[in-house]
Every structure is written in C-alpha cells, then in structure tokens.
Known about the structure:
The complex is a heterodimer.
Chain A: E1 2-11, E2 14-23, E3 26-30, H1 37-45, E4 52-57, E5 60-64, E6 69-70, H2 73-76, E7 78-81, H3 93-102, H4 113-119, H5 135-148, E8 153-157, H6 165-182, E9 186-190, H7 193-199, E10 202-207, E11 210-215, H8 217-224, E12 233-237, E13 239-244, E14 247-252, E15 255-259, E16 269-273, E17 278-280, E18 291-303, E19 306-313, E20 316-323, H9 324-330, E21 337-342, E22 348-349
Parallel strand pairs in A: 3-9, 3-10, 7-8, 8-9
Antiparallel strand pairs in A: 1-2, 1-4, 4-5, 5-6, 10-11, 12-16, 13-14, 14-15, 16-22, 17-21, 18-19, 18-21, 19-20
Helix pairs in contact in A: 3-5, 5-6
Chain B: H1 6-39, H2 45-57, H3 60-71, H4 78-84, H5 92-116, H6 120-128, H7 133-144, H8 146-161, H9 165-170, H10 181-190, H11 195-226
Domain Mop (chain A): 286-351
Protein name (chain A): Molybdenum ABC transporter ATP-binding protein
GO molecular function (chain A): ABC-type transporter activity; ATP binding; ATP hydrolysis activity; molybdate ion transmembrane transporter activity
Amino acid sequence: MELRMAVDKRFPGFELATDFSVAGGRVGIFGVSGSGKSTLVSLLAGLSHPDQGEIVLDGEYLFSSSKRISVPPERRRIAMVFQNACLFPHLSVKGNLLYGFKRCTPGHRKIDPDTLIDVLKLEPLLQRGVNMLSGGEKQRVALGRAILANPRLLLMDEPLSALDDSHKLQIIEYLRSAGDQFGIPYLFISHSLLEIRLMTDEVLAVGGGRILGQTTPEELARQRMGRSQVGYINLIRGDLVRRLGGMQVYRWGDAELFVSTASQEETPLFELSSRDIILFKKHPEAISARNLLHCKVVDTFASGNKVGVELSVGGQRLIAEVVGEAADELAIQARADIYAVIKASSFRTLT
Amino acid sequence: MEYLTSTDFTAIRLSVKVALAATLLSLPFGIGFAYLTSFCRFRGKLLLEVLINLPLTLPPVVIGYLLLISLGTHGWLAPLFNLLGIKLIFTWKAAVLASALVGFPLLVRSIRIGMESLDPQLISASRTLGARRLDILCTVILPLSVRGICAGSSLMFARSLGEFGATIIVAGNIPGVTQTIPLAIYDYTSSPTGQGTALSLCIVSVVLSVLVLGIHETVGRKFTRRA
C-alpha cells in the first residue's frame, strides 16, 4: 500500500493540514483525542471531503481538488472497522458479514467467507442477532465484515477502545492473524501506544491537526518514555516453566522471570514499565525482589529529562529508565555490565 | 342509541377505504420527503419543510377550498385532469386526496423521527462496504425506520378517519358516495331524530380509533423489543 495525503480541512476552531506519504502493510496513526486522527480517517474513507488537496492510494487519485476528482466511499474499496463495531442491528451475524461481500464485484472477491469465518472463529455466532453478542464478539464480526468486503485498504479507527483490557489483546490476535492471512494492508488508528506497538510497523504521530512525525512504533515509544506517566512499556512473552509458592516462573530467552500475577496462558504476554526496573552497578548482596538479572548495556538514549537504558539479557532486550544523575553515577555506557532488579509483582498480565 | 342503516355501514366502509387509500398513497411520498429532509442538504430545504408542515397549521377547510379552486371545473389543474379523463371533485377520490394532504405532515414527521434516530455511522459503514444511496435506503434506513413508518402510517390512518373540513368542501357529503363517518355524524346531529344514530357512529369511531392505536402500540413495542 502506498498512500499520499496532502489535504487541508477546516472546521470552526480546528484545522487539519497534513502532507505525508506512507508505504507498507501495517501502518499506525497515533495521537491523543482531538488530534485529528478520526478526521484524517474520514477524509481517507471519503466520508467527508477535504477543502483542498490530494489523496492518492496506490497511484489512483481518490481526491484531487485541482483535478476535480472525488471518488465516493462506496467506490474507494476502503473498508472501516469503527470504534463501536457499528453492526447492522436488523441483520444477523451472517447478514452483517456478507453485507460488503455481496456488494463487491466478483472480480474482487478474493476472500472466501468460510475461510474467514474459520479464522475469526465466528461459526457458532452466525445465526445470532448482533444484540446478543459481547463487545469482543461484535468487534470480531465488524472485522470480518470489513475484510469480506475485499478492500484494498482496511481502516481500523480505535477498534479496541470500547473493550476492556482482557478482550483487547484477544482481539489484537484476531486483527493480526486476519491481516497476515488475507494480506490486506491496514491503517490502525489509536491513542494507545501499546496497541500501536502490537499492531503496526510504521507510525504517524498526529497532534493539533498536523503530522508530528513518522517513525517506528519502537522509536515512538522511546521518544515518549520521558513524558509518559508509565515510562516505556516492555512487552515480555514468557514460557511457563514451573510454579513456586504463589509465583510462576517463566523462561524468557535464557533468563528466568519470577512473576506473582497469574495467567491462564502457557505463554502469556506481560507488560513491565521501565520505571519498575532498578539498576545496580554491582551484584547486590541480598534483596527482596525476586528477579535479579545480569545484563549488558546495549545503548542509551535521552527522552525528556530521563535516560533510557537498553539492556541485553539472555538474548532479549529490556528498556530501563533512570534520571541523568543516576546514569552518571552508574557510569552507564555501551557494553557495560549491570544488574537489573525487578519485583515479581511489577509484571502486569496482558494475556 | 339506534341501529345503523345500510347507508351508515357504507359510510363506515368508505371511511376505512378512504383512510387506507390516503395512507397507502402518501406512504412512498412520505418516505421520500422524510429521507430528503433527514439526509440531504440542498437549497430550499427550509421552504420544503415549511410546505410539508403547512397543513398542520392551516384550517382543513382552507385546504379543501384550495383543492376545490385547483381541481374544480374551472380550476387551474382542471385542463390536465380533463385531458387524463380523471374526475376528482365530489368523488371518494377527492376525499382520499383531502385526507392525504391533511395527514401528510404527521406521516412525514413520524418517519423523519425514525430516520433521524438512526446512528449515522451505520450509514457510513454501509457506504464503506460498497452500498450506494438507494441500496442504503432499502437495506439499512428503511428496515431500521420501520417503527417510525408504522407510527406515521397509523397516525395518518387515524387522522384520515376523522377528516371532515377539507373532505366536505372537496368531496361533498353525498350519502353512499362520499359520506364518511364524520360527515354522517354531522348530518345526524343536524336532524332532531338522528341523535341516537349519531351516538352509534361515535361509538364506531371510538372502536376504530382504539383498534388503530392498539395496533400502533403493539407494533411499536415489537420493534422496541427487537432493537
């Protein structure tokens, strides 16, 4: 997917002015509420029109004020997954799923409904009314409906924001697997950096109606570490090795992690804030924290008034953060040995 | 209270026939105007809304008179109707037209309320899924506005059953031809011996109205449960 958007759109008290090009299959748009993300999506889908500018997708003009082109949304082949699913309440799950498929020209019908129903595990829901579905099920159906329209681009406008945390990660698995299996490029819009990191390879940061930057989700997370209240979130997937008292022991690379929060999964995903990692220059004698990891410093980076420390531990990467003074005292530099201490209760279960 | 005569039964049948015909005739136009005023932006929209709602504020007699001078023998539309071989004035069809005009704002307002209560994102969703305007109207807007359509239709039917002012001007009060229940009641109340029959027809009117409103409530609840 190659997208170029150079558009202006004015509302009373707000102006969106963007000029960017992006290529790739998994692109994120990140920004806080009111930054202009949804306006951007609406312009791209054709649900509203720019005051001026151009939108070009894969070489085709979808909008051009100078060429007087404005392709209506029904002919853009850009499907959307909305924040609140937006399923048709008078249709069954099956009716919803096939709505876009029936309107897709036979030449574009590349995705088999049965395969999609299988991938998204929708078979038991097919005959149900959509009002009988949970929030997560509704979003799965909304995703299936959008994919079955066989779009050339899928827009996901904060599709997880209406779900609770436990369902978000489940749906992310579905979003990723469907994206991979059917090869539909997507634009994932979110105000959650975690979602952006899990879903995308490249991200546009939006703020005040402007594109603030174009980078990778990892780089964006590092840039925001110093300003964020939760620091940098390390995503850790461990393999359950054994249970020990009230704790679980997980293998993570060559290291073992002691985690006190329970998970039903054999290979759960945990998040760990960079602020919950304490660094020691030498091996501490005795500590109450259950995780003492011998690490090598890979790199350091500045973020706000904090210093991020990228650590290598057992073949895995971990980001810790310290204030500048501490970095000086610890003499943190690349290839230096260091000890990271993490309490078993600092891990938060995502799945 | 007295037994009804065959002319009274004819008036009852005619009332139902006129109300039904007026409702069915108005329904497609009502849906069209409700759609236009709910979803389309165009110049003169305000004027159109005022015109649609005008019969609500005008005395029905005025509407009847305007119809008479438009469709009458020397009316400005008379040449067109003569050419088509249609005679309206002082027929039951004129009663249908009068009822349709008087009840039309009620029909449009109810359907419009139904359409405007739709989540606009459903329409956006259907557009991004490849549906065009007429397709969206048939597959999303109309099915989700059924409650408003039923409410509007029953209101219009009930209003047509009771229509008097416009009907008497444009269709007259000819027993067995254009005389509906309200016109028959008017006749009986003008006669010193007709009080009992007038009361009987009033009871018929009440029963019909209760039936219509009962159907309206039942259908409304059914769709509320489904939604």
